[in-house]
Amino acid sequence: MLMKLQLALLVILLLACGFLYQFTLKSSCLFPHLPPYKSQQGLEALLGHGRSIVFLETSERTELSPLVSCAVESAAKVYTEQPVLLLMKGLNSSVQLPPNSTSPALSLLSAIDNVFLFPLDMKSLFEDTPLFSWYTQINSSAERYWLHVSSDASRLAFIWKYGGVYMDTDVISIRPIPEDNFLAAQTSQFSSNGVFGFLPHHPLLWQCMENFVENYNPNIWGHQGPELMTRILRVWCKLRDFQEVSDLKCLNFSFLHPQRFYPISFLEWRRYYEAWDTEPSFNDSYALHLWNHMNQEGRAVVRGSNTLVENLYHKHCPKTYRDLLQGPESSVTGEQGPGNK
């Protein structure tokens, strides 16, 4: 009798160990941004090749909009062999998700094999860069555009340190970018900072960080972002107007034609929310910047509307379209964020 009882207890113990192992394994897949499943060494290993696709969220927000989800999912769909990182200030290293989080977008993105969620620690990120002294002295509560300025600084430091491609969270990827070192033209002779890519330790980005601090003006929106990129670009390059759809070569990087990311200009951003008789092919584009910062009137992405943006979701981020988009009775607007410029 005693032997049977011991045998039964042993079976129960084995089953419990098996369940615990499976639970741990599943948790590792669903929440890759947390220790012990993703240690700091794991993050460094991901970044070691300088080929990551990087998105940032510099607010404390953890409830992601469908637009952010679509941006990250579409990048993971295009860059299947590269890590796609979403660094969020609202995450921390001690919990899997904030206790009050009910974000279906985080759950959706966590389940994608090549998407990794990590906390964004700005102080650590800015160490060993020109931005560190600025960051440790700034009074962020007094800054009018702090979320945008801190996002501008973070993207420069991250790509300088680790390399890769930075994208705003309102950029939908449609095909791979064939360049390692590039800036993206928003218009002729004016650079965006919403998409750019460089190998680690590129001197142009170091100069951008130095200029960021030396010419810091927090009262002008964009002064630390696209205007800064354009100032440094003009130092490095003798700019000229684009000829047809061809990129400009400048020393060891490229200045990509506006058609690559901005085939619809910021003045025409509403066209994304309209139905087209014949939709554009975007054959010359690598990704599409949706200008969510311009969407102050809260235009929505509505399932069944046959608008251009709905069809882009359906094609390029099908999981987001399936799980997060609602019909006309409960439509979803794009949230304003520092990565939506």
TrEMBL record:
<keyword id="KW-0808">Transferase</keyword>
<keyword id="KW-0333">Golgi apparatus</keyword>
<dbReference type="InterPro" id="IPR051981">
    <property type="entry name" value="Glycosyltransf_32"/>
</dbReference>
<dbReference type="GO" id="GO:0008375">
    <property type="term" value="F:acetylglucosaminyltransferase activity"/>
</dbReference>
<dbReference type="InterPro" id="IPR029044">
    <property type="entry name" value="Nucleotide-diphossugar_trans"/>
</dbReference>
<protein>
    <submittedName>
        <fullName>Alpha-1,4-N-acetylglucosaminyltransferase</fullName>
    </submittedName>
</protein>
<keyword id="KW-0328">Glycosyltransferase</keyword>
<dbReference type="Pfam" id="PF04572">
    <property type="entry name" value="Gb3_synth"/>
</dbReference>
<dbReference type="GO" id="GO:0000139">
    <property type="term" value="C:Golgi membrane"/>
</dbReference>
<dbReference type="GO" id="GO:0006493">
    <property type="term" value="P:protein O-linked glycosylation"/>
</dbReference>
<dbReference type="InterPro" id="IPR007652">
    <property type="entry name" value="A1-4-GlycosylTfrase_dom"/>
</dbReference>
<comment type="similarity">
    <text>Belongs to the glycosyltransferase 32 family.</text>
</comment>
<dbReference type="GO" id="GO:0050680">
    <property type="term" value="P:negative regulation of epithelial cell proliferation"/>
</dbReference>
<keyword id="KW-0472">Membrane</keyword>
<feature type="domain" description="Alpha 1,4-glycosyltransferase">
    <location>
        <begin position="198"/>
        <end position="322"/>
    </location>
</feature>
<dbReference type="GO" id="GO:0050673">
    <property type="term" value="P:epithelial cell proliferation"/>
</dbReference>
<dbReference type="InterPro" id="IPR007577">
    <property type="entry name" value="GlycoTrfase_DXD_sugar-bd_CS"/>
</dbReference>
<dbReference type="Pfam" id="PF04488">
    <property type="entry name" value="Gly_transf_sug"/>
</dbReference>
